[in-house]
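Q: A reviewer asked whether we had any structural model of the full assembly, not just the individual parts. We don't, so I'm hoping you can provide one. Inputs are below.
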Amino acid sequence: MTAAVRSGADGFLARYDALRDLLPGDPRERAAAAEAFRRTGLPGASAGRREEAWKYTGLRPLADASFAQSVSPTSAHSQIRARLPQIEVPRIVFIDGMFSRELSIVPPAVHFARFAGRAEFGSIARPDGQPLVALNTMLAEDGAILEVPAGADAGLLILVSAATDRAAFHPRHVVRLAPGARLTLLDLAFGDGSYLHNPVFEVTVAADAALTHVRLQNESTSAFHLATLYAEIDERGTYDSFVLNLGSRIARTEAHARLTGENGITHLNGAQLLNGMQHADFTTVVRHQAPYCASRQTVKNVLAGRSHGVFQGRIEVARHAQKTDGYQMNQALLLSPDAEIDTKPELEIFADDVKCSHGATVGELDADQLFYLRSRGISDAEARSILVRAFLAEALDAVSNETVREVLDQAVEGWWEKQAA
Amino acid sequence: MLEIRGLSAAIEDKPILQGIDLTVPQGEVHAIMGPNGSGKSTLAYVLSGREDYAVTAGSATFDGHDLLTMEPEARATAGLFLAFQYPVELPGVGNANFLRTALNAQRRARGESELDAVQFLKLARAETKRLAMPEDMLRRNVNVGFSGGEKKRNEVLQMAILRPRLAILDETDSGLDIDALKIVADGVNALRGPDFSALIITHYQRLLDYIVPDHVHVLAGGRIARSGGPELAHELEAKGYAGMIAEAV
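A: Here is a predicted structure for the entire assembly that you could use as a starting point for your response.
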């Protein structure tokens, strides 16, 4: 049950034209997004047009790919079930972007609604100047709307995206924490074959609320994963995120965090582990718009083969955001002479009493450390793997929830096994 | 067991070792003394397989095997151990895990069974206690945040657990106070026996009061300038390197 569509930006626009009367939500939002997307197209896909925000990542290969709207067979369920972490916690599962009631365990402590049933485009993620948000707004069919009521501790919730070959989907997720609420959200993305996963997240963390958001991007290495996230954090609120990028042919995880109340905290940490021809782009923007807030962006890259890592980190401090504490660090370990890292820190500070620092390191494995391990009888290959794991472990230490950490550790183990095979 | 013949080595075309002849028979402890820059550490590194050095002439065999063609890990598995002058920090690598990985890699290569975590910890805790080291040293990352003395003791702990047949101690005494020096010496003396040999590289005679060597060699200008019994170390202490080297030439 597949119908081929044209490739590139035209393909997505044709799909919008075919579906426009069936899509949920305000048609004017859709039309405006389509108009914005028509103007920009896919970033970096056509020669001569290069936006600064997409300096190191071009979506030409995505423009050349073609997708089909598939209806995933129910037989896929058992395979997907086998790939879910064996943890007894609530989970919300999407297959090719559509909610699967059968595979989900709806959480008791979180109000859950489907975007398909309650399509609201929030006010934070806007299509203007954001081609992927425009594409998502134009074509979003489903997604999770998650709301944690005031003062509630909702524990751990898993949000799953499973994908099949040639699918293209644009989930729209909304996460709202009311004052004093708490949630740990583990966001897993995996699949088979070549597909596009283009989610947009809108996150609001009210006063005294805390969201821990851990994202494991473990897509097929033929897939495109382009995620855009907007978070707003009110006073004394915390948005603590960690992204582990392992999969995809081209991945971009772009996060915008805006600190709007005093003493807010945001962490946009992560690690990227790439091989072959993989390209992963970790882009963050932190806007300090209130005094006494703190932000951290620590990203580690392990790059093998001909892979390409990108880190773009931007900190903006408004004039009145005094006593801001901002920190940014990007480290890359290059395991092959053909691997490449591009790093672009940007600090834009208008307040005069702030602490903001950034740093970047690029290196190979340390020859002294390798020799030390080998002099104890450890083989060269094992010594290398020990040192890479140690480098990664320091990044993963940012994830304090043990259950979640275990899931990430297993994913890293799986990555190693795949490289060894 | 260790036979070095006419060994010459260079780093970046600069000759450092210029024809070393040295034999360390099984069960003996030999000391190598010498002034700074005489090639003591280079000898230790060349024997343990560091890549930065180019061997330009001569040979070194261990139990009749050509040491110089073996990978560093193969030398370790054959029973050679280098206690580093500057032990390397390994952030993110737990000390206990590191030691177990090393021990099991060696046991595996020798066709012996591996130790599981429980068996290993029992062994490691016993050795830690014997060397008067705090037990949390096993939990910490390898050498990270260790004081100079703790790093040297950690080398001795590794030696005690790996039980080499030939240990090369590269200025393990440097920077140690007298208590730490005794602990290091006890660690070496505990291993002494018919199946254990050691090459103790030191600048000072002090360590040799606690580890009494069978033979002492003086290294100067990349060659063994003199060899003798333990009394040679005392003579050195009295005359200084300059005097002794002048006599030898």
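A: Points you may want to mention in the reply: The radius of gyration of chain A is 21 Å. Residues 1-5 of chain A have pLDDT under 50 and may be disordered.
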